[in-house]
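pinned: reference chain
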Amino acid sequence: MFKNVTIDARYILRINCLIFVMILGKTYSLKAQNSSFEFWPEADLWYILNPSWRLTAFIPLTDYQSSKPSDLNVYLQADYAFGHTKRFYSARLLNENRAREMKAWLARVGVMRGGSLSEDGDYHEDVLYGEIHRRLPVGDKILHSHRLRPELRWLGEDNKFSYRIRYRLMFEKEFTRGHWSMVPYANVEPYWDSRYSTISRVRLIGGTTISWGPRFALEGNLTYQYDEHYDTSNLYAFNMILHVFFEGKHAKPPPLEGLEL
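pinned: its structure tokens
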């Protein structure tokens, strides 16, 4: 699978795999305490302005599978993709029947408001955040990426201020057949929280996204979260996401010559 990979690319892949395994091992070596299961249904709306710019809205719901009331969050974001990778990498980007070149960088700014769906709930959160993504293709259509995300947060009814810094390492690979696209992925994400001045949370996620046309994609994943400051230290969640895509008149990229779609 790696016969066409340069020595530098192999070295990068090995280093990142080592980081992934080290964090994974550290997470599972933590002493197990109480645990819980949650269901996270979500709807994501994407409006593609052009090959570089897009607007998005994420609407996740947290169902605690208990007497605790559910929570709803609404994210509004703007994305800008730019730059070229050293190794050419094309993908349908989940929602497309045509291939386009993957940009090397993606910058995102967004806001989020969250709250309980019941008057009995005590959850309230407002967040202002930014993200920078670095995408690095390795091997046969394998993509690994790094995401750094600082968050400014106002929590509770008294809007108490804090901030978090999140880093995510992710691996994914696209498989295509006809108009179908399938992208299995895995990622690990530690959270540094100013309230505790330490890494307070680690998430491990594995899942798959499937698209069958230019307008819809369905994503499912399993999440394990360790957070000693959460209601339960060991959280297991099933996340189901419906992606719906819209396009502006300048959204279509020029065709890539020599690619089989």
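why pinned: The domain at 7-247 is CATH 2.40.160 (Porin). Confidence is low (pLDDT under 50) at residues 1-7, 26-32, 93-98, 256-261.
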